[in-house]
Design brief:
The chain is an alpha+beta fold. It contains 9 helices and 23 strands.
């Protein structure tokens, strides 16, 4: 029978409003299978790639990236280096703390210490869709000590005494990413003291009550590698596994019905070998179509400045089910902050619209009085391509940031010029040099707790100028 479905926007793509409900192994055409595979890939990439990261952090104890088990906070008392390879485009400004939250049995209580006004810190709450659904920290809640309750979709309790706020995740697992500013290498002991004040405990422990029955054990399936995510049809098998912990949002009911035509969805079994050969090819072609659509989006929207990278991160309500934006955020910098918390002007091309490469010499000049307007701090970090990881260099310098300003050399007019290139620019410019690899790279500026001039566009990031 025919079912009427509302138009659903997938980036610039409108999903069909009228479709025939049927089983995946019945009369689904190759063209329809290809279209579904493409749309489900764009929808699902952030979930699958996030699972890859969190499996290495919280499940795979033999992985060098392993942090701790679920519901146990792990503090990393150092900044990221090129040796950290699980997560693309990491910052190297703020030591991280990590919490993988399993919210199925009961909520967790997250307690933070008092943090001095001058030091930025934040807790970024990320669900399995990669939506940033809440913040605690300098901007969001201030520097006072307090306890916050993190609850999953099934919790129906009332706010207990001693809790400043209840934070709700729409998925049963969540990721809390802590950032604690470090002013310089000698400041690490102060960072450690603050990290020691971060506390996570089940609600029953916080209240001094008996714990509820534990949630059923989960047999976490192995994730795909970052490379295999791009081409392996098992991508949809992993997506199905993840979706069982993600109650369907009302705005996506029709979308999930459509994906079910190809056996994609919570409770579905996706087996590429069970499909006819033409459908198998359609699935892999659909995956390639998704990457082609991303490439077009990046080149025509992001690289041209029509779309801002800041618009790829935020709440579900902010993103308005724009799945291409969500995918681009995951590809280019998974777990990026919402723009009120941080802005990310990104440079993939220079002022001549040419890709950045180590064979070129570049400058980034801030005119007098035009440094990035922030309440906390700013930085410029360089990443190698295609890995999007920090670049190992003789200076062990992966970024230039505002805490380094006293050691940077100002221009004669009071402006500031940074030099981005492979070769050392010379002793008089080395302090302002951000070393680049010989091959392709990009840079990302970070404005933590941006001021209104940055948020409303009055301040513009300067161009990356190619020096002839």
């Amino acid at each position: 029978m025919l079912k009427r479905r509302s138009l659903l926007m997938l980036g610039a793509l409108a999903l069909p409003a009228l479709r025939v409900a049927r089983a995946a192994d019945a009369s689904l055409s190759a063209d329809e299978a290809r279209a579904i595979a493409k749309d489900a890939y764009i929808y699902g990439f952030p979930l699958v790639d996030s699972y890859r990261v969190q499996y290495s952090y919280f499940v795979d104890r033999g992985n060098p990236e392993y942090k701790s088990g679920w519901n146990t906070l792990n503090n990393t008392a150092r900044v990221y280096t090129p040796e950290d390879k699980a997560i693309q485009t990491p910052n190297s400004d703020t030591p991280y703390s990590f919490l993988g939250a399993d919210l199925r049995a009961e909520p967790l209580v997250l307690t933070v210490p008092a943090v001095e006004k001058e030091r930025y810190y934040s807790l970024q709450f990320i669900d399995m869709y990669t939506f940033n659904f809440a913040y605690v920290g300098s901007r969001a809640t201030g520097g006072e000590a307090g306890s916050y309750l993190l609850a999953g979709p099934g919790w129906k309790g009332e706010t207990p005494p001693g809790i400043k706020a209840v934070i709700r995740s729409e998925t049963e697992f969540a990721f809390v990413l802590y950032r604690t500013q470090m002013f310089n290498p000698a400041d690490i002991e102060n960072v450690k003291k603050i990290q020691a004040g971060y506390k996570v405990e089940p609600l029953s422990t916080f209240l001094g009550q008996a714990a509820p029955a534990p949630a059923p054990a989960v047999d976490f399936i192995a994730p795909l590698s970052a490379a295999d995510e791009k081409t392996s049809p098992d991508f949809y098998k992993v997506l199905n596994f993840i979706l069982q912990f993600c109650p369907t949002h009302p705005s996506e009911t029709a979308l999930m019905e459509r994906f079910a035509d190809l056996n994609i969805g919570s409770g579905k079994t996706f087996d590429i070998k069970a499909f006819p050969s033409d459908i198998q090819k359609a699935v892999t072609d659909g995956m390639a179509d998704a990457w082609a659509a991303f490439k077009e989006h990046k080149e025509t929207e992001i690289d041209t400045g029509k779309a801002s990278s800041a618009d790829a991160f935020g709440t579900r309500e902010f993103l308005k089910n724009d799945y291409m934006q969500r995918m681009s955020g995951a590809v280019l910098g998974i777990y990026g902050n919402s723009k009120d918390e941080a802005l990310y002007p990104v440079y993939f091309v220079d002022d001549q619209k040419k890709p950045l490469t180590g064979s070129g010499h570049y400058t980034l000049r801030f005119e007098p009085g035009q440094l990035p307007p922030v309440n906390a701090f700013w930085s410029l970090t360089l990443y190698e391509l295609p890995s999007s990881l920090l670049y190992a260099n003789p200076l062990n310098r992966y970024l230039i940031n505002s805490p380094m300003l006293p050691n940077l050399k100002k221009d004669t007019d009071g402006g500031l010029t940074l030099y981005i290139q492979n070769e050392n620019p010379g002793p008089d410019k080395e302090a302002n040099w951000l070393p680049a690899p010989t091959g392709p790279f990009f840079t990302a500026m970070r404005l933590y707790w941006p001021k209104p001039d940055a948020l409303d566009g009055k301040w513009k990031a300067p161009p990356m100028q190619r020096v002839n």
